[in-house]
Structures are given as C-alpha cells and as structure tokens.
Universal stress protein
Amino acid sequence: MKILAAIDQSAYAEKVLAKAIDLAKREEAELTILSVVEPNFADAAEIGAQQVIFEQFRKNAEDLVNQAQLKAKNQGVAAKILVLEGTSVASRIVQHAEQHGVDLIVMGHKGRSAIERFLVGSVASRVVAYAPCSVLVVR
C-alpha cells in the first residue's frame, strides 16, 4: 500500500502527519510526505521580489518535509519526501498520486469562508473530486 501525506504550513499538518504515520505503521505501507509550493507572479514588475519570496516558501516547505520525515523515522516509519511546484496544489497532488500508484491520500481540511469556497474551491474538495484513489481528510 502507498500512502501520500500532503502537508503544508497550516495547523492541520501535525494531525495529517500523525494520521499518515499511524496508518503506515498499521498497514506496513510505503509513506511519501509531500508539500506543494505555488509560484504567484501576479505583477511582472514585482517578479524579482516575488522570486525571493517564492524561494523562501520553497525552503520553508523543504524544512517542513524534512522535519516530518524525522518525526516518521522516530516512530519507526521510513518516509520519502518531496516538494513540488505548481500553480494548482490540488492538481499537483492528484498528478503525483496518478503517476505513482498511490492508494490513499491523507490531507488536511482548510477552512474557508463560503464566498472563498464558491470562488476558488478548496484544495481538499478538488483532490477528493479528482483523485484516482481514496482520500482521508483530517479535521
């Protein structure tokens, strides 16, 4: 069994990681910990500044997955780690799951206002809609 834990800097990351590690131990599954960084270059005049910010976001994501890997190791689970870039977090998660035969995606639920959900949707709802496998959404 292959489990993909999709984490970010949100408050849900710890719960997602704990659940994914628990499932990986119980099922003797292969665990991959993934974080996706979104470049957001809205204004060409600000690209230089935004590139610096993006590089910091990428470093933060790398630190996050490295710390998560260490937590998994401390609990007896060897985990692979991966940081991807993309303009759609949900699409990158789904794409990775498709390409690597993932059996279960574990991810957090991010609260948004009703208007935000209407306008842009949530990452979790998009992953649930398009994933090629089961998705466990942790609250």
